[in-house]
Amino acid sequence: MAPVPAGDQLTDAQRTRLDEAIRAAERHSRVEFSVFIGTAAGDPRSFATQLHNSLVAPARSILVLVDPTVRALEIVTGGWVRRTLTDKEVELAALHMQQAFGEDDLVGGLVRGIHMLADHARPAQTLHAPDA
This protein's superkingdom (predicted)? Predict the structure, then answer.
C-alpha cells in the first residue's frame, strides 16, 4: 500500500525509497503498512488511531504517523498484527526511528523502523514433523 499523504517535505527520491521500503515490508510480513507525515489534527495519538481505523484492513495494518511540527511519532497496530508484534518490539522500532530523526534523517529512520516492524510482525514459520 502506498503511504498516506506525506506532505511536501519529501523529495521524489525519498518518496520512492519510502514506497520501496513499504512494499518490501508488506511482502516480508504480509502486513499492510501506511505512513503519514504531516500535521495531526488535534491529539497525534487520536488522529493516528482515526487514520488507522480508516484503512482498508485495519486489523492487518500498521500505521506510522510522524508530525514534525510537534515532534510526535505514533505507531498504531491492528489486532491481527499484535498476535506477533509486541509492544516492546514497537517501542524498540520507535526508538530507532527517533534516533534517526534526531540526526535529521526522517526517511532513513522510517525505512529502518518499517523494516524492524516487518521483521517482528512476520508470523513464525512452523515446521511439521512427518506423520509416523
Answer: Bacteria
Q: Whole-model pTM?
A: 0.87
Provide the residue count of the chain: 132
Which residue bears the cell 512452523?
A: 126
Quote the CA–CA distance of 57 and 13 in Å, as a whole number: 28
Q: How far is residue 29's CA from residue 124's CA, in Å, rounded to a whole number? A: 10
At 103, phi and psi to the nearest 5? Answer: -95, 15
HSE, side-chain direction, 13 A CA sphere, residue 73? 18
pLDDT digits (tens, 9 = 90+) for 26-44: 999 999 999 999 999 999 9
For residue 6, what is its C-alpha cell? 506525506
CATH number of 12-121: 3.10.310.50
